[in-house]
Amino acid sequence: MPSSLPRPLSDLPIRRLTRDDLVACADLSEDRGWPRDEERWTLLLAAGTGYGIDDPDSKGLMGSCVVLPYGTEMAAVGMLLVAGRHARRGVGRYLMQRVIEAAGDTPLSLHATASGRPLYEELGFAPVGRTIRLSGAFRPAAAALHALGGPETVIRSASAHDLRAVVRLDSAVFGLDRTHLLTRLPTFADHLRVAEEDGELTGFAALSPSAANHAVGPLIAKDTSTAKLLVASLAEATDRPLRVDVDARHEDLLDWLVRCGLRSDSETTVMALGGRQHADWPRYFAPFSLATG
C-alpha cells in the first residue's frame, strides 16, 4: 500500500548519494524491474552527482537521479527512479524540477521511455533523436556471412597506451569532454576493443556486465563496417546475450544486428533542455549507457 507523503512535496529533503547508497540504489532499480547493476551505479556515482530521497517508511530510497556533467556545455540526466509504492504521486516531477534548478544555465540531455516522455516534455525537454535497444544471443556465423570490412582494419584489445587516443577520438565524435568517464572504462568494462588502421585509432567499443547480459557501449567508429567488426569481436569474448542501444539513424547496423540474432525490444527518445546534440552521429553508434549519453 502507498504511504502518506508530505504536502507540499518540497518538504521532502533531497540529499547527495554516495557509495554507501549502492545497495539502496540497486534495490530501487530492482523494484522498478531494472537490473541491479551495482557496478554501473558505482561508475555513475563516482563520475557524476547522485540525488536521492529517503523513504520515510523504510531504510531504502523513495527516488533517485544521477547527473553526469560534461563541463558547462551539457549534463546528462539518468536513473530517474521512483519506488513503485510511491509512483504517480509527483515524486519524479519534484526530483527533476530540483535537478533542473541545480543545473542552472547548463543544458541537459536524457533518454526518455514512452512512459517518461510526457513528464519531460511538460518540463521543457524537446525530442532530438531516438535510440533502439536490441538484445539476444549473437550468432557469429551470421556475422561472418556478411562482409565486415577490409583487411586493413585491425581489431584488438585495448591497452593502457590507447587511452589517450580513445579520449581524443571520443572528444572529436561526442563533441564534449568525457575524460572523467573514459578513464574509468578499463575498470568498469569486462572487455575494451579498439579498431586501428595504419597505426591510427578509428574506433572503440566496450562490453560491460548488466544482469545476465553484456551491454555494448560506448560504440564509436569511423564507419558502419568498423562498428560491425568491433561488435563481432566483443561478442566473441562472452557467452552471455548481448544488449546494445543504437542510434536509430544507423539503419544498416540495426539490420545487421537483427540478422545476427538480436531483436528490438524497446526504444527511447533522446531529449534535450536548453541545448542540442553535440555528437558527430555518423561515427556515434551507441551511447556509453542510457544514463550517460
Give structural notes.
The protein is α+β, with helices and mostly antiparallel strands and 293 residues long. The protein has ten helices and 13 strands. Strands 1, 2, 3, 4, 5, 6, 7, 8, 9, 10, 11, 12 and 13 form a 13-stranded mixed beta sheet that branches. The protein is globular.
Q: Helicity, in percent?
A: 25-40%
Structure summary, number of beta strands: 13
Q: Could you state the order of secondary-structure elements as H and E?
A: EHHEEEHEHEHEHHHEEEHEHEE
Q: Please report which band the strand proportion falls in: under 5%, 5-15%, 15-25%, 25-35%, 35-45% or over 45%.
A: 25-35%
Calculate the terminal CA-CA distance, rounded to whole Å.
35 Å
Mean pLDDT: 92
In DSSP terms (H or I, runs of 4 or more residues), the helix count works out at 10
Radius of gyration, in Å, reads 19 Å
- Outline the biggest β-sheet: 13 strands, mixed
What would you call the shape? globular
Low-confidence segments, given as residue ranges, are none
Oligomer: single chain
Structural class: alpha+beta
Question: Could you write a compact summary of the structure shown?
Answer:
This protein is of the alpha+beta class and 293 residues long. Helix content is 30%, strand content 32%.
Secondary structure: elements and pairs:
Layout: E1 15-17, H1 22-31, H2 38-47, E2 49-54, E3 61-70, E4 74-82, H3 91-103, E5 108-112, H4 117-122, E6 126-136, H5 140-145, E7 154-157, H6 163-174, H7 179-182, H8 185-188, E8 191-197, E9 200-210, E10 213-221, H9 224-236, E11 242-247, H10 251-259, E12 263-273, E13 284-286
Parallel strand pairs: 4-5, 10-11
Antiparallel strand pairs: 1-2, 2-3, 3-4, 5-12, 6-11, 6-12, 7-8, 8-9, 9-10, 10-13
